[in-house]
Design goal:
The complex is a heterodimer of chains A (342) and B (351).
Chain A lengths: L1 H18 L1 H25 L4 E5 L4 H8 L3 E5 L2 H8 L6 E5 L12 E5 L5 H15 L5 E6 L7 H30 L2 H6 L5 H27 L6 H25 L3 H24 L12 H13 L5 H29 L5
Parallel strand pairs in A: 1-2, 1-3
Antiparallel strand pairs in A: 3-4
Helix pairs in contact in A: 1-8, 2-6, 2-8, 6-8, 6-9, 6-10, 6-11, 8-9, 9-10, 9-11, 9-12, 10-11, 11-12
Chain B lengths: L1 H17 L2 H19 L10 E5 L5 H9 L4 E3 L3 H8 L5 E6 L6 E6 L5 H19 L10 E4 L11 H4 L1 H10 L1 H15 L2 H5 L6 H26 L7 H23 L5 H16 L2 H5 L6 H4 L3 H12 L6 H30 L4
Parallel strand pairs in B: 1-2, 1-3
Antiparallel strand pairs in B: 3-4
Helix pairs in contact in B: 1-10, 2-10, 7-10, 7-11, 8-10, 8-11, 8-12, 10-11, 11-15, 11-16, 15-16
Classes of the chains: A alpha/beta (342), B alpha/beta (351).
Chain lengths: 342, 351
């Protein structure tokens, strides 16, 4: 009977969601995010140096430069200098034709703004020398055959966390809508108990979180990965996201308070993994209290190192334990604040 | 009119304070300051990225890399050690052979590096060998450089403080993206927008008051975080001007967008996406050479670089004026749209 009531509440939510196009958009948003990341990762991986050249440099030299750098072609030196002075790091390559375009030596010049990073300062000259000078040493290549960009595993970990968060947040905001629209009071006179309400909301939130995480990862191109390993961490992410959703739903009484609570809860989701990457090893223990630390580094083991259960298992177990602790600590607050009958 | 505007702004600020949002802004600023000062290191030493095995008699390459230092080179003593170090992800191997000086170099890549990255490394290696053999300037030509702004320097601030402009951008400049929309949706839900119809205040006053309130809140966050992290350094006037203008423009953008949505979940999904996309230029902030065209057209791109210049002046104040100019143009485009969307919302009852 209890299961039927929970199922019927989930069914009502899903029916109400699919009726409105805009709510469907909420469910599609993480996938759009995954597509943006899919486009972003190769762009970062391909980042090298930027050159701008004048059109009189010659087709052969311009084509040779394109093998080393991103090359833009502009009509004259004035345009080249304008481009060099823009915000990003771009070095110019131009023939010295002297002031006003006549009387120069005709030699090649590297034009810099003055605030470029070292590689943008040093490499243009070395590229020109390699193209136009003599070979100094014979260079051969060997590849280890690893095709995935090193940025991709980190982006996949962040995306998986964000997708889980979406599920929890949607659930939290649905609770606030239940409060403000009076649905909560209507449910109060139905046979549904507060525990069943929480269970129904948690089931929907966790399912959404897990589905969104897997779909986002496949759309982003994080595959191949072991789905069971990913699931072992995603369950913890979903549990944490649902806990955050419940806290938002129980603490906040209107959209403004909801946004405020969300900002607090959102911060550890992204800042703990980032801190985990930059904080010195000796201080890493200061981050252990947060499940996102274990979840993110567990994902890193899967996506970066293709690690086995021996490495992923401890991360998954710790993440689940800490997430469960978060939920247990929040339980009293939820039971007190999320009551259907006053 | 001015009194009405003032009263509307005060109403928004009261609403924000009553809902603990001001407290949240203050606590967030303190948290960011704590993280910046005590958790994020000032020096982010690079992880070893190059594994070098020099088998030549003179060991000239090894000495060159050791002199250059930098902490991102592992010098291997044997072929076994070289292979073992290369097993770690994200490393490149350089194996140098020759009787006395380098004659052949085998570069081992991970496999994901682009063709351009490989060619760049080759050019760099050719240059290093030319410097060692004395061919630099003869068989390996040297090209003259012209520096357009010799006074400008690319001084790197400590890593933790370099993050402050990014925190300010994401929390202060983008303040309105969440909050302005939440206020509008709260008004829809409790039908305050209908009550607004019988007041003498117009749509323009509503828009200006809401933008001012968000701007003030953004300044509170900025002043607090600055005082606790960068202190009195940087160009405060330009920082505050950029933050205020940025918060106003993002608020106008949000009010157009939020008018479409009926509840918070619908609004939030798009907001998170918007924040993610607008934050992408943070990648260029740390790698200025990473600037694809699609990134440069994002409105947040000049703001982030303007903030960097205001915090850590490099002698290029044009970056700040460019950002302010771009914000002005964006506001000119957005204001009529916002007036239309809010007009429907406030005067017509629904968007």
């Amino acid at each position: 009977m209890m299961m039927r009531r929970i199922g019927s509440m989930i069914g009502r939510d899903l029916k109400a969601s699919t009726r409105e196009f805009l709510t469907v958009w909420v469910l599609v948003a993480p996938f759009v995010l995954a597509l943006v990341i899919r486009g972003f990762v190769p762009a970062v991986g391909g980042a090298g140096i930027n050159l701008v050249v004048t059109s009189d440099l010659g087709a052969d030299l311009t084509a040779a430069l394109r093998q080393y750098a991103n090359v833009e072609v502009v009509p004259d030196r004035a345009a080249l200098e304008r481009r060099v002075l823009l915000v990003d790091d771009v070095a110019g390559v131009v023939r010295d034709t002297g002031a006003g375009g006549g009387g120069g030596s005709g030699a090649l010049l590297v034009v810099l703004q003055g605030n470029e990073q070292e590689e943008s300062r040093e490499l243009p000259g070395l590229i020109l020398a390699t193209i136009l000078g003599e070979e100094q040493v014979q260079i051969t290549e060997r590849s280890l055959g690893r095709q995935a960009s090193p940025i991709r595993p980190y982006m996949a970990g962040m995306l998986a966390l964000s997708a889980a968060l979406f599920g929890g947040i949607i659930m939290g905001f649905a609770i606030i809508e239940d409060k403000t629209a009076g649905t909560m009071s209507a449910l109060g006179v139905s046979p549904l108990s507060s525990t069943e309400y929480i269970a129904g909301r948690a089931t929907l939130g966790m399912s959404l979180a897990v589905i969104m995480t897997f779909a986002s990862l496949y759309i982003m191109g994080a595959a191949p990965f072991d789905p069971l390993q990913v699931l072992s961490l995603t369950v913890s992410g979903a549990l944490l996201a649902v806990t955050l959703g419940f806290i938002i739903g129980s603490v906040a009484n209107n959209p403004i308070e909801a946004i405020g609570t969300f900002k607090f809860g959102f911060m550890p989701f992204w800042i703990i993994p980032v801190l985990g990457l930059v904080v010195p090893q000796a201080y890493q223990f200061t981050l252990y209290w947060m499940p996102t630390y274990w979840i993110f580094f567990g994902y890193r083991e899967i996506f970066l190192n293709q690690a086995g259960w021996g490495e992923v298992g401890p991360y998954a177990a710790t993440a689940f334990g800490v997430s469960l602790l978060f939920f247990a600590v929040s339980w009293r607050l939820l039971r007190r604040r999320l009551t259907l009958r006053g | 009119m001015f009194r009405r505007l003032l009263s509307l702004t005060q109403r928004d600020l009261r609403l924000i304070t009553r809902n603990y949002y001001l407290a949240i802004v203050v606590i967030l600023a303190l948290l960011y300051a704590l993280v910046t000062r005590f958790l994020i290191p000032a020096d982010l030493s690079p992880q070893p990225a190059v594994v070098l095995l020099d088998s030549t008699g003179a060991q000239a390459m090894r000495q060159l890399y050791e002199r250059a230092g930098g902490g991102n080179v592992i010098v291997a003593g044997s072929a076994d050690e070289y292979d073992r170090h290369l097993e770690a992800a994200n490393r490149i191997g350089i194996k140098v052979t020759g009787s006395v000086m380098p004659e052949r170099i085998e570069v081992t890549y991970q496999g994901w590096e682009t063709e351009k990255t490989r060619r760049l490394l080759e050019a760099s290696l050719q240059g290093q060998v030319a410097a060692l053999t004395g061919a630099m300037g003869t068989a390996f030509p040297v090209f003259q450089r012209t520096v357009l702004r010799p006074g400008q320097v690319a001084e790197q601030p400590p890593f933790n403080l370099a993050l402050v402009p990014i925190f300010i951008f994401s929390e202060a400049v983008l303040m309105g993206i969440f909050l302005a929309g939440a206020l509008l949706i709260a008004e829809k839900e409790d039908r305050t927008n209908r009550a607004y119809q019988v007041t003498p205040a117009g749509t323009a006053e509503y828009l200006v008051a809401r933008s001012l309130a968000m701007g003030v809140l953004a300044l509170v966050f900025t002043v607090l975080l600055n005082l606790l992290t960068t202190g009195l350094a940087g160009n405060w006037a330009m920082i505050l001007l950029l933050v205020f203008a940025g918060a106003v423009v993002t608020t106008i953008f949000t009010l157009i967008y939020a008018a479409v949505f009926m509840n918070l979940s619908q609004f939030l999904a798009g907001s998170i996406l918007a924040i993610f996309v607008l934050s992408l230029p943070a990648g260029s902030y740390f790698m200025p050479a990473f600037s694809p065209v699609w990134m440069r057209v994002l409105p947040s791109y000049p703001i982030i670089f303007g903030l960097r210049e205001a915090y850590f002046p490099s002698g290029n104040p044009g970056l700040v004026t460019t950002a302010l100019g771009q914000l002005g143009i964006t506001a000119l485009v957005l204001v009529p749209l916002a007036m239309w969307a809010l007009g429907k919302q406030l005067r017509g009852g629904e968007a």
